[in-house]
Amino acid sequence: MQEDFLWYIWKRQYFQKETLRTEDQTPLLVLKPGYQNHDAGPDFEQAQIKLGDVTWAGQIEMHLKSSDWQKHGHQTDPHYDAVILHVVWEHDEEVTKPTGEIVPVLELKYIVDPALLQKYNSLKGALAQFIPCETSWPEAPEINKTMMLERALTNRLERKSEMLLAWFTANTNDWEETAWQWLAWCFGFKLNQEPMLQLAYRAPLSLLKKVHASGGSLEAVLLALGGLFDHLPQVPQVLEWQKEAEYQLKKHGVKTQHPLAWKRLKTRPTNFPVVRVLQMAAFLKHVNLGFGKFVRFESTDELLDWFDFPVYTSIKWPEQPYLLRLKLGKEAKNTLMINFLSVFMSGYSQYRELPELLENAIDLLTKLKPDDNRIINQWQKLGQHVNTAFDSQALLELQAQYCKPIRCLDCQVGAWLVK
């Protein structure tokens, strides 16, 4: 058992409340269980109880055993001065506040329905399954699933937005530079996210704008700074790009560095780093190296149109057939819009306090196709409908942030199953 079970029991008051008494036999009435505290300090705040004839307001602390109070050092921590009740599974010793006052104790072990604990242990013990409630998921009410998926999607956008906002701070509040780095990260398509981000650091947007404004080749500069010319055949166009890159980098005082740690093994040629960099350069030119339009648009359909961009090449690649098909595939385009666009809109919405932009990001996900991967396939095997990117993104978050760490009691479906 873990303390999350105690939090769940206390939050929902799932115990015998009739003739409730503390360990010293003082009559106890719970008026308000309080609000769970997810930061440092006691577990529940703003609680209200009645001990005998006296009403108390303050905090509730919870442990598996009373002696855990001492183990955690609460007896000397002034943050626990306002604790009015110590709720434990098993009472094994009296404890005191920093003031020396004995803390009233409520033991749950004998007033909780054993069936609740059995269901909880059943979920917690299902480590070998895809999700702990794998056999029970189909039984859960659709309303619980829907509410949990909405919450999971919101959590996912907020979590990724925090990462984006951290980059924004590191870029001294430059949204366009942050957007460029996020775009490069997403163009890495998981396999090459880190080297793509490093490429964005080597080729800041200010440099790319200067190159583009002078009629220079973005492809040449990005390939050179990524150390990717060795990945290409030495055909005339590549040799021209190399000369163009040398000229542009010298002109702007940029030194070439060692090649980035690109990955090519166990991936299809369409995901090779050269292909992604050429596609990314085409997209940058398509949006004229500006990202403001992604938060200023008339409709979601307008956003979708911006990602329908061409990738031109007149190069005849000897024995490199994959370089003749540089157009971004439908699946890759869909993934890019999910990972880049929805998160960028959500992060900007959070920073500018524009809830309508967050609604637009969510609306966009309802119009995109769902992710297609092993985890989503597993959800579908459980009978879960996955119709849009809204569904798949929510399910990915649910599995990663709730099911995998076995946070069943924080999930509306898990809580329903335990009850």
Structure explained in plain terms:
This protein has 419 residues and is of the alpha/beta class. Helix content is 47%, strand content 9%. It contains 16 helices and six strands. Strands 1, 2, 3, 4, 5 and 6 form a six-stranded mixed sheet that branches. The chain is elongated, with a radius of gyration of 28 Å. The model has no long low-confidence stretch (mean pLDDT 89).
Secondary-structure blueprint:
Layout: H1 3-12, E1 28-32, E2 35-36, E3 44-51, E4 54-65, H2 68-71, E5 83-90, E6 105-107, H3 114-124, H4 142-170, H5 175-187, H6 193-202, H7 205-213, H8 218-225, H9 236-251, H10 273-286, H11 300-306, H12 330-352, H13 355-367, H14 374-381, H15 389-403, H16 412-418
Parallel strand pairs: 4-5, 5-6
Antiparallel strand pairs: 1-3, 2-3, 3-4
Counted beta strands: 6
Rough outline? elongated
How much helical structure, as a percent, in the residues?
40-55%
> Helical stretch count?
16
How do you describe this structure in short?
Helix content is 47%, strand content 9%. With 419 residues, the chain is of the alpha/beta class.
Q: What distinguishing features does this structure have?
A:
419 residues; alpha/beta; 6-stranded mixed sheet; 16 helices; elongated
